[in-house]
């Protein structure tokens, strides 16, 4: 692992367990936790291979697996990965630093059709590693594959920086929305969902 993530440095002790309990409770209450997965499902062919980067407790990857996709989830927090495996058997859940992501070394050499980076992951990576994270995620997606990233615009990572980092990572912005259910983008939106594509040439 490289630099400690903001998930570690900017949260209180016990935050990971609180997060696990929160999403287990939401699932038990029947909350809709699959919005990100529905968007990804619309962008890829049936049975796609999808990387859930910053998978947390596995809710997005699990919903994609239910839709028939082959999912590998990665998160830097071992407690979240353990919870994902306990709650959502089927996908492969791995502990890993997105800024140094090398899934071939973990037995997953096949490239992905798409990657999803949901749940404000980009706001929780280690400061200064955002470009490295996008670069490593993009490297795991085959040419013409998509990388979909969503995060709050008020979380300390300006969209201008994100766009520059995405270009440096070899990704091209195709669409931007204000929500995962495709509300139109507007400059004052407090959330951004960016659909990026890795060019073929």
Task: Kindly list the characteristics that best describe this protein.
seven-stranded mixed β-sheet, 201 residues
What is the structure about, briefly put?
This protein has helices at residues 6-9, 15-28, 35-43, 59-66, 78-87, 121-124, 130-139, 159-168, and strands spanning 49-53, 70-75, 92-95, 112-117, 141-152, 172-177, 191-197.
What does this structure look like?
The structure is a single chain. The protein contains 8 helices and 7 strands, in the order αααβαβαββααβαββ. The protein has helices at 6-9, 15-28, 35-43, 59-66, 78-87, 121-124, 130-139, 159-168, and strands at residues 49-53, 70-75, 92-95, 112-117, 141-152, 172-177, 191-197. It has a 7-stranded mixed beta sheet with strand order 3-2-1-4-5-7-6, with helices on both faces. The radius of gyration is 16 Å and the shape is globular. The chain starts with 5 loop residues before the first helix and ends with a strand. 45% of the residues are buried. The model has no long low-confidence stretch (mean pLDDT 93).
Q: What's the layout of helices and strands?
A:
Layout: H1 6-9, H2 15-28, H3 35-43, E1 49-53, H4 59-66, E2 70-75, H5 78-87, E3 92-95, E4 112-117, H6 121-124, H7 130-139, E5 141-152, H8 159-168, E6 172-177, E7 191-197
Parallel strand pairs: 1-2, 1-4, 2-3, 4-5
Antiparallel strand pairs: 5-7, 6-7
Gyration radius, in Å? 16 Å
What's the N-to-C terminus distance?
A: 32 Å
Mean pLDDT: 93
**Beta-strand residue fraction:** 15-25%
Kindly report the spatial arrangement of strands forming the biggest sheet. Answer: 3-2-1-4-5-7-6
Biggest sheet layout: 7 strands, mixed
Percent of residues in helical segments?
Answer: 25-40%
Question: What structural category arises from helix and sheet content?
Answer: alpha/beta
Shape: globular
Low-confidence spans: pLDDT under 50, at least 5 residues?
A: none
Per DSSP E runs of 2 or more residues, the count of β-strands stands at 7
> What is the helix/strand order?
HHHEHEHEEHHEHEE
| Tally of helical runs | 8
């Amino acid at each position: 692992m490289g630099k400690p993530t903001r998930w570690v440095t900017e949260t209180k002790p016990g935050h990971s367990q609180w997060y696990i309990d929160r999403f287990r409770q939401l699932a038990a209450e029947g909350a809709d936790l699959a919005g990100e997965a529905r968007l990804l499902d619309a962008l890829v062919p049936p049975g796609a291979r999808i990387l859930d980067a910053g998978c947390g407790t596995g809710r997005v990857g699990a919903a994609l697996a239910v839709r028939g996709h082959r999912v590998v989830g990665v998160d830097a927090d071992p407690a979240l990965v353990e919870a994902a495996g306990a709650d959502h058997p089927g996908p492969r859940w791995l502990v890993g630093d997105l800024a140094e992501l090398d899934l071939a070394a973990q037995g997953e050499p096949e490239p992905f059709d798409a990657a999803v980076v949901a749940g404000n992951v980009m706001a929780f990576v280690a400061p200064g590693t955002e470009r490295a994270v996008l670069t490593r995620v993009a490297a795991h997606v085959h040419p013409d594959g998509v990388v979909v990233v969503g995060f709050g615009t008020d979380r300390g990572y300006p969209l201008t920086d994100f766009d520059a980092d995405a270009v440096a990572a070899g990704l091209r912005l195709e669409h931007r929305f204000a929500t995962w259910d495709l509300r139109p983008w507007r400059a004052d939106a407090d959330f951004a969902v960016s659909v990026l594509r890795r060019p073929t040439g």
